[in-house]
Amino acid sequence: MDFIKRYTTDEGIRLAIAVTTDTVEEARLRHDLWPVATAALGRTMMGGLLLTSDFKNQENVSIRINGRGPLGAIHVDAFSDNTVRGYVDNPHVDVPLKRAGKLDVGAAVGIDGTVQVTRFTKLRQDYTSQSPLQSGEIAEDLAYYLYTSEQVPSTISLGVLVDPDYHTIVAGGFLLSALPDCSDDVLAEIEHNVNQLGPITAYLKDNPNGEGLKERLLGTLNSHEVFSHDVHFQCTCSRDRFLNALLSLRQEDKDEILQDKVTELVCHYCNEKYHYSQEELKALFEKPTHIQ
To answer: What is the C-alpha separation between 84 and 77, in angstroms, rounded?
Structure first.
């Protein structure tokens, strides 16, 4: 089962770990993603979940990455209830491998663009900031965003391993952040541990539930688990929400829709399809009411 866990240490390090294999696989199936699109969207969804670290304030995060590559833009929303949704503009993209068995996510995403992050809660106004893309590989781009836009020095590792049959084998990642009082010796130990770990997908292939990952990353530091929750793909769309959208259309647009026997609306984020009959919409438009 997919999860996210968060830890603090007495030495001033924060760690969040996410294993999202099933979540990424559901996104792949919903959007019929090809491998490099699975990797790009999967990494970004993990990044969104890891960035929703301010769980005390019920914070949600939206990420938009557009490097003007063949994949188009990546759109992800991660919510404080540890659900996530997302899509890419062009799910059927194929680019040459970077090397044997290594997808070239950077070539698919591109680097001529930005990472845009919006943080929002029920308690305060939305806050949006952005930074230029560095590699298009997602993890490095989000780490650069955190450092330049939010002044948080961080290490992020995000990985998605895809089978030749397009199936998601493993997906997961972690976010390490240092508090201002963290010593140079502690930072050096963390850097050594991260370098020794190697690619996150290789570790998760041998430890698909992230067994021992916290210990490998934090080493001798005194850690405390402060949060643990299941993670899954979930959209906020619904039949009634789409009906509300139809009610807000101009009269000429409503008249055009009523020319069809059946109207189909598709959610970009989850690819769910909603169908409305001509009779249903005619009755709705004649007596418009607000749908809850």
So the answer is: 6
Domains and CATH numbers, the chain: 3-233 (3.55.30.10), 239-286 (3.90.1280.10)
Give the chain's radius of gyration (CA, Å). Answer: 21
- Give me the phi and psi of 126, to 5 degrees please: -60, 145
Q: Which residue has the tokens 């997961």?
A: 172
The answer to whether the beta carbons of residues 42 and 171 sit under 8 Å apart is yes
Is the pLDDT confidence value at 292 over 60? Answer: no
Chain Cα centroid distance, residue 235: 12
Q: Which two tokens stand for residue 279?
A: 């009779």
CB of 166 within 8 A of CB of 31? Answer: no
Q: Are 245 and 63 in contact (CB under 8 A)?
A: no
Instruction: Return the percentage of the chain with pLDDT > 70, whole number.
Output: 95
Q: Is the pTM of this model over 0.85?
A: yes
66 near 113, Cβ under 8 Å? Answer: yes
CA gap 163, 289 in Å, rounded: 49
Q: Classify residue 180 by burial, with Cβ atoms within 10 Å: 0-12, 13-18, 19+.
A: exposed
Query: From CA 106, how far away is CA 94, in angstroms rounded?
Result: 12
> 249 in helix, strand or coil?
coil
CB 125 within 8 A of CB 117: no
Which structure tokens are listed for 26? 């559901």
Query: Which residues in the chain belong to E strands, given as ranges?
Result: 3-9, 13-19, 60-66, 74-78, 83-88, 114-120, 127-132, 154-162, 168-178, 223-230, 232-233, 262-266, 273-277
At 168-216, the pLDDT tens digits run 999 999 999 998 889 999 999 999 999 999 999 999 999 999 999 999 9
Instruction: Please give the single-letter amino acid code of residue 16.
Output: A
CA distance linking residue 241 with residue 256, whole number of Å? 20
